[in-house]
Amino acid sequence: MELNSAIPSGPIEKKWDKHRFEMKLVNPANKRKYHVIVVGSGLAGGAAAATMAELGYNVSCFCYQDSPRRAHSIAAQGGINAAKNYQNDGDSVYRLFYDTVKGGDFRAREANVYRLAEVSANIIDQCVAQGVPFAREYGGLLANRSFGGALVSRTFYARGQTGQQLLIGAYQALQRQVGAGKVKMYSRHEMLDVVVIDGKARGIVVRDMVTGKISSHAADAVCLATGGYGNVFFLSTNAKGCNVTAIWRAYLKGAAFGNPCYTQIHPTCIPVSGDHQSKLTLMSESLRNDGRIWVPKQAGDTRPPHQIPEDERDYYLERKYPSYGNLAPRDISSRSAKEACDAGRGVGPGGKGVYLDFADAIKRLGEDAVREKYSNLFEMYERITDENPYKVPMRIYPAVHYTMGGLWVDYNLMSTIPGLHVLGEANFSDHGANRLGASALMQGLADGYFIIPYTIGHYLASNKLDKVGTDHAEFKKVEAEVAERTNKLLSIRGKRTVDSFHRELGKIMWEYCGMARNKAGLEKALELIPALREEYWQNVNVLGGGDELNQSLEKAGRVADFLELGELMSRDALVREESCGGHFREEYQTEEGEALRDDERFCHVAAWAYKGKDQTPERLVEPLAFENVHLQQRSYK
Amino acid sequence: MSSGNGKTLNLTLEVWRQKGPKDPGKFVTYDAHGISTDMSFLEMLDVVNERLNEKGEEPIAFDHDCREGICGMCGLVINGRPHGPRGATTTCQLHMRSFKDGDTITIEPWRATAFPVLRDLVVDRSAFDRIIASGGFISVSTGNAQDANAIPVPKEAAELAMDAAACIGCGACVAACPNASAMLFVAAKVSHLGLLPQGQPERESRVTKMVAKMDAEGFGSCTNHRECEAACPKEIPVQFIARMNRDYLKASIFAGRREARAGDSA
Predict the structure, then answer these.
(1) Same domain membership, residue B146 and residue B91
(2) By the number of CB atoms within 10 A of the CB, which of A267, A307, A349, B216 ranks highest?
(3) Nearest chain A Cα to B141, which residue?
(4) Contact across the interface for B20 and A548, Cβ inside 8 Å
């Protein structure tokens, strides 16, 4: 298998323009003859389905939730970046591009990132026109705030519910097309496999989660916008239903998996309170605009925060990174928190927490001003912890939040399976080894509104696609495989619940493939995970039947795939003998404990190709060229 | 790691179990002992389900996803109240410290004709999606938009629109209403879009179509009980219903006149 990134030639500022001119177009009257499947209805999937339908394509859209409006993009709090330079503070497309490449620790593809920065401004225009109620100044114009990894204010926001408002904008656009009959929406349907005919993606097999019916859907092209796979850790900030199944099934069918080990651990989450914990809750990074992060200077200091005098506190981010301070990028902030806690200076139960303190902001701005900016986040914190953050500092700790890795795609967002496109968090493309805050929403909407609608036309116009129906033998074969796997899960009737396996896998991943990794640990994970998987298929207990609403069965299928993914992540992390962004190998660090890249050996994307059951997958390499932003060690000091 | 305050509760649950849409359903009693007060309500149900699973009994089906109060997927009637005893709180954000040791807790699904039960505590809320599809949007195709700052929006209007747009579509308003009316849900969308300059061109047609669809889906009418407002986890006020009624009335009057005018010129 070859990785051809299909990056257009020419100067970076002209690539997308040139490419748009060179791409083939589908005649407007012919668009209605094509059928496109979109899996996932979040920012990327919802925007893509709506926009392709507006263009005239027939679209089928699938989501596992009861409504497309519930996709997990909805939980994004802080904001969305765009190079509008409304604040006149020196922002530009080039600066957003530069910040994103640097923030990603030089492991993203320059051309993709530049295009992302270019279309960022259009996204804000589109969302405002849809009625997204962004925050505004008294003059009626849009307000901005700052986010980690940037020295300009380019983040647009709607209170602490930006993801919700953007998603509702995309959802409304989608429902408009549903009403117009251009999108057929399938809620409570889970994609269980992709169907490849004559080397091209021609459809999917899904399970109706209410009736249990397994059915096939054929199309001319398939788009996966199914989000990230952070739930491999069991505890993450993802929604409970987020899973890897769609992209994992595609991987098994021949789509290469890019940089699976790149995981983002978000620095500001509410700490774990006990073994019953089912998920972790993020406190928006925007809080770091006004909150100051600190721990006691003395290890083992158990005094309540207000009794610790100023000179006995260590505001470690401000100390270590004076120019970015509390707005240092996520990977760096998370690792610093871990360091402080590992040194015995953590706070709260088990010492797994650091303070995020608003006392100075409240003194400076007044409680009302702080309330206006962050009230919903403060309320959420209080509801979960029973502590009032206006009075006592929040306690936060890093948690798994986002996966930069995903299916490998070329410049057109197409995977190594022709016709199979991958959008949003599900692909690997724009964030390198670390994603900056407020960039996930930007990428999801860029892919959905402004990129795939063009590139899908190019694919359809330049490929001869024979008519294929769901009566094709390949659909029948895949349906039978899906049914067999489902029956297998239901027939084991072992002794352990699905959740108990999932928790155990999560502990292995967090311990050995989490915030800090090393050779011995990863090798250990590569022994433990296959053994756990083996036990799973012998000893899991999934009750109920296949032809009914069965939530245990849904979970069981997802966990089975996580048990395979975890191994690939560990393998990827083991082979990448360097530290970069969210991938921190303890053996490779500077004297000050910062990530130490090895550009000689690893300035590339690693994409894994499946080679069959029990075979070691093949590691393919796409070299990364930095022609515009020069390779350097990241510095936020 | 130990719990924050280490308290545990022993509870009795009365849970609605229903095999499928056609099954009559019934309450079943479960014991829930040793529940940490730091657990969320859904984590308590997770624990009960794990125990059922270990005993070989089928777990209780309930909807949930983000577990941080924003996706709108969860929703249980707890002791007769949608989303339970705490105001402005979704079921997933309700914590067990709101209950006392020895309590009996009744857990039911949303009950409304327009929200049929699919299984146990899971209901079908797709009627909400169909109401949005009938007109709950601004017709602007991708690429049509002008610069985002071309039309200033007064801060007050933007803030009020945001108050309405905060709706998570959970359906608690319908579950709380004696008439199973969806007025608060529809009013929130009508107000969100109607308060913004971008939403003006379709303001009248939007409210007309959405109200017609709401009626067609089998939701009841509003008779000012204000139970919806009390149950809403996002505290969406009933003033938006008044705003919608005003828009609806205006639309009914002017639509007739416009049709007449269009007839003259034809």
Answers:
(1) no
(2) A267
(3) A54
(4) yes
- Out of A330, A576, A585, A597, pick the active-site residue: A330
- SS3 call for A530: helix
Q: Is residue B256 very low, low, confident or very high in pLDDT (cuts 50, 70, 90)?
A: low
Torsion of CA B258, B259, B263, B264, to 10 degrees: -20
pTM: 0.97
pLDDT at B4 over 60: no
Written as one letter, the residue type at B257 is R
- CA–CA distance, A372 with A394 (Å, rounded to integer): 18
The span from the CA of A138 to the CA of A580, in Å, is: 42
Same-domain pairing of B63 and B148: no
Mean pLDDT calculated for residue range A482-502: 97
Q: Above 90 in pLDDT, residue A518?
A: yes
In a domain, B1, yes or no: no
Residues 329-368 of A with CB under 8 A from B: 349-350, 352
- Inter-chain CB proximity A126 and B145 less than 8 Å: yes
Residues forming a β-bridge with A207: A190, A214
Domain membership of residue B54 (yes or no) is: yes
Check whether B263 has a pLDDT greater than 80.
no
Work out the average pLDDT over A484-502.
97
| Residue B265, pLDDT score | 53
Q: Answer positive or negative: Cα dihedral of A326, A332, A333, A335.
A: negative
**pLDDT beyond 70 at B5:** no
> What would the two tokens of residue A504 be?
């155990």
What are chain A's domains? 59-187+221-262+404-462 (3.50.50.60), 267-399 (3.90.700.10), 492-588 (1.20.58.100)
Q: Is A634 a catalytic residue?
A: no
* Contact (CB<8Å) B169/A74: no
**pLDDT, position A132:** 98
Give contacts of B141 with chain A, Cβ < 8 Å: 51, 54
The answer on pLDDT for A347 being more than 60 is yes
Asked whether residue B206 falls in the same domain as residue B258, the answer is yes
In A305-357, DSSP assigns E strands to 313-314, 354-357
Q: At what angle do helices A498-513 and A551-575 cross, to 10 degrees?
A: 20
Cβ atoms A259, A572 nearer than 8 A:
yes
Contact A125 B126 (CB under 8 A): no
HEC profile for B124-161?
A: CCHHHHHHHHCCCCCCCCCCCCCCCCCCCCCHHHHHHH
Q: What is the Cα gyration radius of chain A?
A: 24
Select from B46, B88, B137 the Cβ nearest to the Cβ of A175: B137
Residues B101 and B155 in one domain: no
Last residue of a domain, one of B82, B111, B140: B111
Q: Indicate the average pLDDT of chain A.
A: 96
Which residues of B fall within a CB distance of 8 Å from A142? 148-149
Label residue B261 exposed, middle or buried (CB < 10 Å: 0-12, 13-18, 19+): exposed
Number of structural domains found in chain B: 2
Tokens representing residue B91 in the block: 């079921």
Q: Are residues B177 and B255 in the same domain?
A: yes
Provide mean pLDDT across the span A606-632. Answer: 96
Tell me, yes or no, whether B135 lies in a domain.
yes
**Whether B154 and B209 share a structural domain:** yes
Q: With cut-offs at 50, 70 and 90, classify the pLDDT of residue A284.
A: confident
Q: Which chain A residues have a beta carbon less than 8 Å from that of B3?
A: 273-274
Which residues of chain A lie closer than 8 angstroms to B162, CB-CB? 133, 158-159, 165
**CA B66 – CA B93 distance, rounded (Å):** 10
In a domain, B119, yes or no: no
User: Nearest-CA residue of chain A relative to B68?
Assistant: A281
Question: Which residue matches tokens 């601004």?
Answer: B138
pLDDT at B2: 37
Q: Cα separation of B37 and A265, whole Å?
A: 28
B55 plus B107 within the same structural domain: yes
Whether residues A66 and B59 touch (CB distance < 8 A) is answered with no
